[in-house]
Amino acid sequence: MKNLQRHTPVDIWSAPYGFTYKEMVEVIGEREAKILYSSLYKHSPKKEHLNMSLKTVYKDGDTEKYVYELLDGMYIETVFIKRRGGGTVCVSTQVGCSVGCIFCESGRNGFVRNLTTAEIVQQVILLLRKVNRIIFMGMGEPLFNYDNFIKAIHILRDRNGMNFPTDGITVSTVGPVKQLKKLREEHLKIQLTISLHATTQVVRNRIIPNMHLSKISDVVDGALSYAKRHNRKVVFAYLILPGINDRPSDIRQIANWFRGKNVMLNLLEYNPTSNTQIKKPAKQEMAVFKQQLERAGIEVTMRSSHGRNINAACGQLASKYNETNE
Q: Which residues does the UniProt record annotate as the domain Radical SAM core (predicted)?
């Protein structure tokens, strides 16, 4: 593995969650690596191995929002949704975000920095809960922190450690085309969700202004290519904005793209943020749009929202602690 010569035993013992099992074996030997990996992933975390700490927890029914403090004084948020027999964790990959979706709080103050691999992995470890699904859809765009994101997946799924099943991992992305092509070639059959939200370039530029360099047709083609390459159903997330992306022409384009393909369209309802100009669709509007898509031959579902009361729902993650530190 590249850059192994730069790792030392001190590095590994001081920040072990950022290292793969293979890296550890190369530096400290197989016997020590087995002991350390077992300690990290099969027992409660030890304070000396951590480089982030839990600041506070907010709870709302089946949803919990964890605020973590990083060594540089920055904060990130992670969401845990309790399910039968375990739960789903929504993991952040960046402090802030550069994408600038108009319905999302994470990028309101811009991008600060990428999370390290260790900071990504520890969000799961520090929950001290049984996790049966990991979704990279917290703060930040995962594919803009590509190397650390991919390495974190390899660490989480390593059979010497947590041994998390690959098909229980989902990445939610706006689909930067270059990185989407790289993801297609990875030997990782993770689940893919594309935040689409439009059927034309003009409308998508309005909703996701900082993704204008990625053509919407290329994003769709890249996702469909991933579905074919890995034999995985790709989910396209679609936030309904009345009068903007729910027109008859949108239904026709969605049908042209996805009819007969290994695709599901996931309709989203806007969760309140600081953008007061966005109109929330009525339940009836969402139901009609769903019915029209189904008549056009598209598999459609509507995502239920969790954690709105604690600002933990989709699009609401943005630690207020970072604002006070600026």
A: 83-311
